[in-house]
Amino acid sequence: MTERDDVAGGDRVSTLAEKLALLFDAVKDPTTGRPYSNPGAAAAIERMVAELPEPDQAGRRISQGYIWELREGRKTNPTMRHLQSLGALFGVGADYFLSEERYREVGRELDTLRTLDAAGVTQLALRATDLSPAGLAAVEAALEHARSVEGLRPAEDEPAIPAKRKRTHRKA
């Protein structure tokens, strides 16, 4: 995360463009599976805004050109409604843009997700999110059995999130 000096207090504060860069780099457009483009983000926000009650739609739409200006740092003072729309698009809320602490928290969460993705376990983790404690225990037991079959150490001997390994196929 890149930062700049805050003239007022000498504290380090990230710019809006930097905060947007983190989201655009990390969050994928569900319709393409790729990071959002400016036109893709504008279109997705348009779809989200269209679902709001009409009185709540005012000031929430954002053009792809304005998104580009925000990302490039050419515009630095969007309206609260624009921040709400951008936050909703990326699932972080407007507070992400207003609070350095929240920005850093989201950054840590995104780092964890990238690590899970690199380890090849993202889909497994996402599928487990709605399981009961008993269901999670069953999944953990199945994973331990699979590790045993593959000749791997028990999970408690492994680092919390190991790096992605190349698979080697064994002949039975």
Query: What is the average per-residue confidence, as pLDDT, rounded to a whole number?
Result: 84
Q: CATH superfamily name of the largest domain?
A: lambda repressor-like DNA-binding domains
What is the second-level CATH architecture of the largest domain?
Orthogonal Bundle
Looking at the structure, what is the overall shape? elongated
Strand content: under 5%
Low-confidence stretches: 1-10, 161-172
User: Whole-Å distance between the termini?
Assistant: 47 Å
Total domain count: 2
Radius of gyration: 21 Å
Order of helices and strands: EEHHHHHHHHH
Strand sequence of the main sheet, in spatial order?
Answer: 1-2
**Major sheet:** 2 strands, antiparallel
Please report the first level of CATH classification, the CATH class of the largest domain. Answer: Mainly Alpha
- Fill in the CATH topology of the largest domain: 434 Repressor (Amino-terminal Domain)
Number of beta-strand segments:
2
Specify the helix fraction band. Answer: 40-55%
Entry summary:
This protein has 172 residues and is mainly alpha-helical. The protein contains nine helices and two strands, in the order E-E-H-H-H-H-H-H-H-H-H.
Structural summary, described in words:
The protein is an all-alpha fold. It has two domains: 4-99, lambda repressor-like DNA-binding domains (434 Repressor (Amino-terminal Domain)), CATH 1.10.260.40; 119-172, no CATH class. Helices cover 55% and strands 2% of the residues. It is built from nine helices and two strands; from the N terminus they run E-E-H-H-H-H-H-H-H-H-H. Residues 163-172 have a biased composition (Basic residues). Residues 148-172 are annotated as: Disordered. This is XRE family transcriptional regulator.
